[in-house]
Amino acid sequence: MSILSNMVKRDPAIAWSVVEEKILSANATSVQFSNVNLERDGSYILLVNAINNFNGTLGVSLEVNGDTTSGNYYTQNLTANSSTVSSARTNDHTITQALALDDPICIFIHISKLTSNYAHAYCRSNSGSGSSIKIWAGAWVHSGNTTNVTSIEIVGNQANCFKAGSKFTLLKGGF
Amino acid sequence: MSIRSFISNQKSNGVLTVVDHQQLSSNTTSITFRGLNLNEHGFYLLYVHGVNTSGGNLITKMRFNGDSTDSRYYRQRITADGTTVAGARTNDAGISSVDGNENIFITSFIFKTSSNTPIVITFPTRGDNLDLLVSEYVLTYNQTTNITSIELNSGIAGGYAAGSRFVIMRLV
Fold first, then answer.
1. Backbone angles phi, psi at B75, to 5 degrees
2. What is the pLDDT of residues B76-87, one digit of tens each?
3. How far is it, in rounded angstroms, from Cα A9 to Cα A13?
């Protein structure tokens, strides 16, 4: 497949437009957007403005097409927690953490396709607030998988970890 | 928080709008956005999906008003490559780096400081699988003139491959 046919030509007149906004009416473990077609739309931006309902460290993952096998993904992260800076490249799909109960989880996620046709995302997020605020920057890839992306899911690793009122907004890109 | 509050600011109370957009039909060394007015517009958001088929490392330099004199620019970067975190401050206009035959995604926020000099905060991400890499760059330029053009230069003949996309937006 050529580079051009992999990279959908976008409408230059449109920046972002909302596909769907989900506000949780009850605590939830995951949120899924199913009205998705990455090859048609070219790119998505997913904004997460959630609250950690788990009393401890919560891992938050990005999954596509219902693929829950963490080994099918790679991530690279760069974190800063006060004066401690660290990084890791991992064979899984974790894109951020929340450190304590009621911590805000704010994530910017941009999803598109590489020329290899793998789904790719880059993320910027915080975890915690006030004196416990932490930065988490990351890159994510659905490794070895060239199928179209037709669903996107944000998943916590603890039951009912996203508190009611948490907001998840999906936008499609004009670029 | 509404969507509008994610993408608007107090100055314009508006939305992000595309100023210019290019998708390359052939390999290209550099692209330039003209007709800009940073003093009036206050802020630009740049998005790039670059494809480097050159086989060599490609450093994108952001040049204002056609000024290619590196000594007028400084950049500070922090990069995470596996478990290695590295930083560097360099006297040039670089905003990202990508290895040969890899993709790069660039998101840049372009402002002016209170001293009227431009500052650019950039989040580049490159590669895939075991080459995934995360960076942040800050670029400064020591001139106080208005910015009317922004060039992205690959430093390699035909460095940006066909299919690469470049979009610049502002608040309207």
1. -130, 145
2. 999 999 999 999
3. 12
Q: pLDDT (tens digit, 9 = 90+) per residue, B54-68?
A: 989 999 999 999 999
Q: Which of A117, A122, A171, A168 shows the shortest CA–CA distance to A146?
A: A117
Helix (H) or strand (E) holding A5: helix A3-6
Strand order in the sheet with B44-52: B16-23, B165-171, B44-52, B102-112, B118-126, B133-141, B73-81, B84-90
- Please name the residue of chain A whose CA is at the shortest distance from the CA of residue B46: A175
pTM: 0.84
Distance from CA of B69 to the nearest CA of A (A): 31
State how far the Cα of A126 lies from the Cα of A48, in Å rounded to an integer.
Answer: 11
Token digits for A153? 């899911």
Residue A5: closest C-alpha in chain B = B163
State CA B41 to chain mean position distance: 17
Backbone angles phi, psi at A82, to 5 degrees: 60, -125
Asked if A167's CB is within 8 angstroms of B18's CB, the reply is: no
Average pLDDT over residues B21-45: 94
Complex ipTM, two decimals? 0.79
Residues near B151 by beta carbon (within 8 Å), at least 6 away in sequence = B30, B31, B32, B33, B61, B62, B63, B64, B66
Q: Given pLDDT bands bounded at 50, 70 and 90, which one contains residue B171? A: confident
